[in-house]
């Protein structure tokens, strides 16, 4: 598949409301998945190999410290207090230092994730119920 | 072939070791480094045996280009050696690499200097058990002659040197102008007056001074003109010629001599004497055999102690260098 | 018994469902464990700190989880994050390696509670062997010799003399409250005892305000000899020979050997016998090492038991043709050690050198040794940045040959050809040690390197 073609598929997918798109073209295959509420798309797998969990965990990384809220510990990340309840924060919402923005469950213990600085949530980078590792960016903020 | 290339020869530059010691009876001068102590120290600094061949130079040091990697040490008369135009210290083991040029330059103090090269010294063939040069009979050393521009001296590649960082000494300059002697075999042939004169007057080294012997300047010593049979010579013998002037016999001395020997300079003080300049006034002081032996043993022990110290320090940081292959491979990256 | 037999003719009775192993460690041992997991077709999860993002073990594992910051307390010692990592990756066992949490009874206990198999003995056994006095007592009861000493403290010279007579000179007199050499004396005779006792006691009095003294047998030139064992869940104990780890610097092992050629056959048999008995008595499971001070034929004394894989396990693997890390995994999944003799005898001789970094930084040039009889366990690669946060050991070079002299020579050649540039290492130090006549003649003791390196 040509790079130009992939680019246009991604563009189309990004503008759509789809959460998953699989395109097969002869030998090559591209799967686009929308794992994030804000509608940012990740190319999770190209060609005919399946994505390993390792890749998923590190797919979104390398954000600057000051702009993100990162996981303070290893566990399962939840955006809301309980299933069905509304998320602690939504994109566009203001957060204050110390405010609870999510929960990480580890060893059957719920640990609150708190904002380390004031800001506005630009993006939620990890889907509800995702396993996260230490220091993994969870929220992207803007001033 | 790799080794040391002579770029400029310097003055009377020869290959020397501790001498051809067992062949004087067959008519071969013993030769060897004229400043034995400085030669041995240079070898100790680069972890050589004391009998490894060094380069001896007189008043003007040679300029040498290394075409291999090794360690060197310069001892003896004071020079300001430059390695690739950077001054390097004397009395210290210094690493040199292929392509390095060492300019030893003129001696600021003293007459003879030594360059020792690690890995067993200059690899010239042994003649009668020695690598030293006897110029007069064109024997030993590098083709039996002084070094000349373009000569290539064979040496070994050396990459390792235990306790490299510790291998330096400060050589104290001994300012005494007294040279100790024991009575020579013909001491009693001289009148008391002559003996007294020998001990009280000051001497200078004359212009007739070379590896064979130093003729001294001073008032004439009255000497009996009776003929004596020739005798074997001993290093440090002070013979009085017919005109009453003393000659101190040194490394390249003739094997026998017929002049009466008033004194023998003790071995421990010879190194000092041979480095004196023409301007240096000195006098002779009588001592006994016991002192002479004790002093020599002390000098030998000084170097032995240094060797022991460096051996003990081999685990002090920084350690080594100890691994030749790794250093060679490292250059390939 | 052939290698193939040992490995693949397995009885799979009672094998539990071990499928994925989390490796709670870093560096060469993490790499070593990953290799063993892959050998047994087990999935493995690497964990890493933020300082170890570019570490080799992270690349080699099937999955990896970042578990904390550079400080070990935040990462490799962070029990909560390690268990959470096991939870989110569905790992059913944790291999602790050596160091870090490998001998932490609390962590082993937490694993047991979470129903995650801690690869090693039970938390109870770890706790028992981790406490020095308890371990000594347990071993003594099991018939393992301990350094003869005074059964209790004493304050008068006569009691001291009586004990000294019983245990034999030389003895080491110590202040019970002691430390820092205060009140400590090595005593060679009854007369010396009488002369030195009161001064030593006065020293103890002024230093600790306590006149209680203690004495034990003083070993003048002790050697460190240890016995490697593996024990399965069914109660079989197998001895995989012994090792000589006498060469130590500041109590850190530097060069290790197998077998311990200094030990005569009769003493060795006796050592193995007491080790089997002790391991059975405490219901040991997994790989373990019992460390002894060896004094003379027949005279060896228990020091401690390490309830984990040891750094120097490769020398045993080479001389017994075993894979101890794989055995740990197999034992953990319930396989019995039925294909082994009780004592696997050593063949040939193996030597290990620990290569350590003296500075952190990037490895610019790297050439690790190889060739006949050479094995290198490492987590290095060219361009790797050695972080300053962890243990200094960066690689282990192991040589295997027919006898001690040949193996030493092989090791000298290997060390000489090893290139690690960009950081400072102990390779020159190792090279010099390997050439020391005392080492070659095997006449060293545990203080030998310290005496060499502290020479003025």
UniProtKB/TrEMBL annotation, chain B:
<feature type="coiled-coil region">
    <location>
        <begin position="286"/>
        <end position="313"/>
    </location>
</feature>
<keyword id="KW-0378">Hydrolase</keyword>
<dbReference type="InterPro" id="IPR052708">
    <property type="entry name" value="PxpC"/>
</dbReference>
<dbReference type="InterPro" id="IPR003778">
    <property type="entry name" value="CT_A_B"/>
</dbReference>
<dbReference type="GO" id="GO:0005524">
    <property type="term" value="F:ATP binding"/>
</dbReference>
<keyword id="KW-0547">Nucleotide-binding</keyword>
<protein>
    <recommendedName>
        <fullName>Carboxyltransferase domain-containing protein</fullName>
    </recommendedName>
</protein>
<dbReference type="Pfam" id="PF02626">
    <property type="entry name" value="CT_A_B"/>
</dbReference>
<keyword id="KW-0067">ATP-binding</keyword>
<feature type="domain" description="Carboxyltransferase">
    <location>
        <begin position="25"/>
        <end position="302"/>
    </location>
</feature>
<dbReference type="GO" id="GO:0016787">
    <property type="term" value="F:hydrolase activity"/>
</dbReference>
<dbReference type="InterPro" id="IPR029000">
    <property type="entry name" value="Cyclophilin-like_dom_sf"/>
</dbReference>
<keyword id="KW-0175">Coiled coil</keyword>
């Amino acid at each position: 598949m040509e790079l130009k073609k992939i680019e246009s598929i991604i563009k189309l997918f990004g503008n759509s409301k789809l959460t998953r798109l699989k395109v097969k073209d002869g030998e090559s295959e591209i799967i686009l998945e929308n794992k994030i509420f804000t509608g940012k798309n990740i190319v999770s797998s190209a060609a005919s190999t399946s994505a390993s969990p390792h890749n998923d965990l590190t797919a979104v990384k390398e954000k600057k410290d000051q702009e993100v809220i990162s996981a303070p510990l290893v566990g399962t990340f939840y955006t809301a207090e309980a299933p069905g309840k509304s998320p602690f924060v939504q994109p566009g919402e203001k957060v204050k230092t110390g405010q609870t923005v999510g929960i990480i469950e580890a060893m059957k213990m719920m640990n609150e994730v708190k904002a380390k600085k004031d800001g506005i949530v630009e993006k939620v980078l990890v889907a509800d119920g995702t396993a996260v590792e230490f220091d993994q960016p969870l929220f992207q903020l803007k001033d | 072939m790799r080794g040391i290339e002579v770029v400029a020869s310097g003055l009377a530059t020869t290959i020397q070791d501790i001498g051809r010691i067992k062949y004087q009876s067959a008519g071969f001068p013993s030769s060897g480094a004229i400043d034995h102590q400085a030669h041995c120290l240079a070898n100790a600094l680069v972890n050589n045996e004391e009998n490894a061949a060094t380069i001896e130079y007189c008043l003007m040091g040679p300029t040498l280009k290394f075409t291999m990697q090794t360690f060197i040490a310069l001892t003896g008369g004071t020079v300001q050696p430059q390695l690739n135009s950077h001054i390097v210290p004397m009395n210290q083991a210094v690493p040199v690499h292929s392509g390095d040029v060492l300019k030893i330059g003129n001696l600021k103090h003293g007459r003879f200097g030594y360059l020792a090269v690690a890995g067993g010294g200059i690899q010239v063939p042994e003649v009668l058990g020695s690598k030293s040069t006897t110029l007069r009979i064109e024997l030993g050393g590098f083709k039996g002659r002084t070094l000349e521009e373009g000569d290539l001296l064979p040496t070994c590649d050396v990459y390792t040197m235990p306790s490299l960082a510790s291998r330096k000494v400060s050589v104290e300059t001994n300012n005494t102008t007294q040279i100790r002697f024991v009575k020579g075999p013909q001491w009693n042939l001289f009148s008391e007056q002559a003996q007294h004169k020998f001990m009280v007057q000051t001497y200078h080294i004359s212009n007739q001074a070379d590896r064979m012997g130093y003729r001294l300047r001073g008032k004439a010593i009255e000497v009996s003109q009776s003929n004596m049979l020739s005798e074997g010579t001993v290093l440090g013998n002070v013979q009085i010629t017919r005109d009453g002037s003393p000659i101190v016999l040194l490394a390249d001395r003739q094997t026998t001599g017929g002049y009466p020997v008033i004194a023998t300079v003790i071995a421990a003080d010879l190194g000092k004497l041979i480095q004196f300049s023409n301007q240096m006034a000195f006098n002779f002081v009588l001592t006994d055999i016991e002192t002479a032996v004790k002093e020599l043993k002390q000098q030998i022990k000084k170097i032995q102690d240094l060797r022991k110290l460096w051996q003990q320090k081999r685990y002090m940081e920084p350690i080594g260098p100890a691994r030749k292959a790794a250093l060679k491979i490292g250059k390939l990256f | 018994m052939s290698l193939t037999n040992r490995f693949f003719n397995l009885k799979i009775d009672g094998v539990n469902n071990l499928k994925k192993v989390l490796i709670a460690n870093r560096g060469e041992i993490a790499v070593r464990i990953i290799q063993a997991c892959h050998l047994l077709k087990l999935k493995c999860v690497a964990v890493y700190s933020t300082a170890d993002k570019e570490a080799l073990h992270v690349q080699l594992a099937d999955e990896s989880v970042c578990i904390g910051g550079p400080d070990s307390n935040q990462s490799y010692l962070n029990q909560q994050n390690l268990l959470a990592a096991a939870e989110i990756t569905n790992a059913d066992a944790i291999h602790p390696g050596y160091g870090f949490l490998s001998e932490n009874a609390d962590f082993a206990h937490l694993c047991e509670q979470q129903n995650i198999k801690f690869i090693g003995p039970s938390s109870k056994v770890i706790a028992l062997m981790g406490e020095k006095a308890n371990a000594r007592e347990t071993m003594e009861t099991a018939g393992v010799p301990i350094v003869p000493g005074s059964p209790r403290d004493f304050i008068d010279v006569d009691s001291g003399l009586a004990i000294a007579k019983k245990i034999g000179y030389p003895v080491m007199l110590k202040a019970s409250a002691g430390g820092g050499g205060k009140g400590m004396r090595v005593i060679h005779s009854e007369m010396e005892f009488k002369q030195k006792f009161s001064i030593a006691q006065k020293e103890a009095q002024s230093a600790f305000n306590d006149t209680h003294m203690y004495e034990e047998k003083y070993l003048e030139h002790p050697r460190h000899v240890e016995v490697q064992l593996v024990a399965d869940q069914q109660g079989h104990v197998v001895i995989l020979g012994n090792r000589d780890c006498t060469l130590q610097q500041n109590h850190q092992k530097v060069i290790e050997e197998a077998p311990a050629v200094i030990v005569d056959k009769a003493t060795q048999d006796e050592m193995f016998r007491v080790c089997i008995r002790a391991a059975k008595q405490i219901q040991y499971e997994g790989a373990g090492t019992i460390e002894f001070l060896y004094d003379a034929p027949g005279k060896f004394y228990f020091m401690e038991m390490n309830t984990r894989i040891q750094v120097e396990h490769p020398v045993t693997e080479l001389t017994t043709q075993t894979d101890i890390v794989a055995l740990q995994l197999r034992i953990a999944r319930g396989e019995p050690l039925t294909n082994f003799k009780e004592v696997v005898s050593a063949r040939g001789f193996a030597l290990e050198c620990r290569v350590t970094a003296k500075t952190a930084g990037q490895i610019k040039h790297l050439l690790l040794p190889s060739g006949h009889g050479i094995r290198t366990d490492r987590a290095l690669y060219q361009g790797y940045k050695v972080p300053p946060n962890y243990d200094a050991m960066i690689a282990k070079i192991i040589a295997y040959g027919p006898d001690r002299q040949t193996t030493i020579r092989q090791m000298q050649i290997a060390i000489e050809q090893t290139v690690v540039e960009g950081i400072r290492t102990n390779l020159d130090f190792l090279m010099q040690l390997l050439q020391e006549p005392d080492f070659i003649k095997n006449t060293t003791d545990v203080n030998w390197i310290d005496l060499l390196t502290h020479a003025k």
